[in-house]
Amino acid sequence: VLKESGAQAVKVEGGAPVAETIRALTTRHIPVLSHVGLTPQSVHAFGGFKVQGRGEAADKVLADAIAVEQAGAFAVVLEGIPARLAQKISERLVIPTIGIGAGPGCDGQVLVVYDLLGLYDGLKPKFVKRYLEGNDLVRQAVRQFADEVRNRSFPVDEHSFSE
To answer: Which residues pair with 76 in a beta bridge?
Structure first.
């Protein structure tokens, strides 16, 4: 799959329960980026997009992060967990931590590009900072295109091929 897709690694969501899968992949020289805390592909099992690792649940998220590191993951995404827990995990692990909704204490940060560019009007998690209101720009461009097609100002010669 890596060879055919051009990907450099696979991402595996989950902690201790998927550690053996991560170990099976990494022992076969397949790089694995792990993902613990709020795991989007299984969000419905959590009852929606809810912060993970609060209170006593913090120990489970920490144990999950340790398990994926021990299984051979080269880094771990920490999503939707309290900032203090993310800091603790980052200090405990040797591998890099990448935060998304996990506060400033991670080694790196990531945002979904649709959220960053404001291209999605739906759910906006607390941790998302929109750097652009892209939906407004897209709507404006689509309206302009439709208007120009209707009034026949697009396409014109400069957008057409000649003989």
So the answer is: 34, 97
Q: Are strands 32-37 and 97-100 parallel, antiparallel or unpaired?
A: unpaired
pLDDT tens digits along 7-36: 999 999 999 999 999 999 999 999 999 999
Whole-model pTM: value is: 0.86
pLDDT in tens, 75-85: 999 999 999 99
CA atoms within 13 A on the CB side of 102: 32
- Write down the catalytic residue from 4, 13, 79, 148: 79
DSSP single-letter state for residue 32: E
Give the list of residues 6+ apart from residue 92 with CB closer than 8 angstroms, or none: 62, 65, 66
What pLDDT is recorded for position 118? 92
List the alpha helices (DSSP H) in the chain: 2-5, 19-26, 57-71, 83-92, 113-116, 134-150
Catalytic (active site) residue 158: no
Residue 100, helix vs strand vs coil? strand
CB-based contact 90:72 (threshold 8 Å) = no
**Euclidean distance between CA atoms 114 and 28, whole angstroms:** 34
- First-to-last alpha carbon distance for the chain, in angstroms, is 45
